[in-house]
Amino acid sequence: MMRIPELPAFDYQPRPYAGPHAEEVLRLRREFLNPGIFLYYKKPLMLVEGKGQYVFDETGRRYLDALGGIVTVSVGHCHPDVVEAARKQNEMLQHSTTIYLHPNIAEYAEKLAAKMPADLKVCYFVNSGSEANDLALLMARAYTGNYDVIALRNSYHGGNASGMGLTAHSTWKYNVPHSFGVHHAMTPDPYRGAWGREDKNAGRNYAADVKSLIDHATSGQIAGFIAESILTSTCARLVEFELPMRCRRASVAPARIFGGSRPRVSYQTS
Ligand SMILES: Cc1ncc(COP(=O)(O)O)c(C=O)c1O
User: Fold this and answer.
1) Is the pLDDT of residue 27 over 80?
2) Domain residue spans in the chain?
3) pTM of the predicted model, to two decimals?
């Protein structure tokens, strides 16, 4: 019989839960929240507290949080420093906008830029991965003056209009017009792809597909290339990159993308 591993001891007592029962929460959700949101389990899990790497349900049962949102709890749930910083700021000023000066956004950008490589020194703050990719698309198009974009099949880039257009997975696309100007190249997948792990020419072959797409599906002038740096297909949040390139460079660029040299990182989503 399989032994179910036990969680190690953890010195934290969750607070007693006094809110509505999970079945009541489910009923309220069904009645008052949109049908677009879905649950993962037949008996849905209700999580009411978090501490470090753990989350607790309404009965106080502890779970190891192996998902952790999408980078949103990268320092663990309810980290005391984060809680304290948020509390202090909430007491001082809860909202401002970029038309006024505020020290935090400027100082935070400086700190962030200091951690980034090479000339990645300018920050655009957004509130989601979808918004980051929407902005990336706009910037690539505005900068190059070109419209077409190459993305990869089986990719996920967000649920807003442009994110869905970039995405290439039927489970994440509604049956509405999208993807105008987006062309999806083959995914360089060493397990299920056309060319496998052992194939020395795999990189070149996948790069040739990108080139073929640029040559035959676009005017030859593209605004950019977007891909998840690790093709997780909707499961993990990672750095996404974009390579603005022109037709003249197209024969070189795809080889660069898949041939191992380092892409120019332009966005970290959310
Ligand atoms: C690779 C990737 N890009 C973009 C997104 C969209 O991010 P968000 O859900 O914050 O809009 C996700 C979300 O899962 C993602 O995994």
Assistant:
1) yes
2) 7-95, 129-268
3) 0.78
State in Å: Cα 166 to ligand 1 middle.
11
Enter the tokens of residue 30: 């069904």
CA dihedral 261→264→265→266, nearest 10 degrees, is -160
Asked if CATH classification 3.90.1150.10 holds for the domain at 7-95, the reply, yes or no, is: yes
Q: Confirm or reject: Cβ of 157 under 6 Å from ligand 1.
A: yes
Rg (CA), the chain: 22
Ligand 1 center–CA 223 separation, angstroms = 21
* Domain at 129-268: CATH code: 3.40.640.10
Strands 182-185 and 222-228: unpaired
- Residue 33 Cα to ligand 1 midpoint, Å, equals 21
Bridge partners, 148 (sequence order)? 222
- Which residue has a Cα nearest atom 7 of ligand 1? 129
Predicted confidence (pLDDT) per residue in 52-102, tens digit: 999 999 999 999 998 877 767 889 999 999 999 999 999 999 999 999 999
pLDDT in tens, 177-195: 989 999 999 999 888 899 9
First-to-last alpha carbon distance for the chain, in angstroms, is: 43
Burial of 49 (0-12, 13-18, 19+ CB in 10 A): middle
Instruction: Label residue 212 by pLDDT band (50, 70, 90).
Output: very high
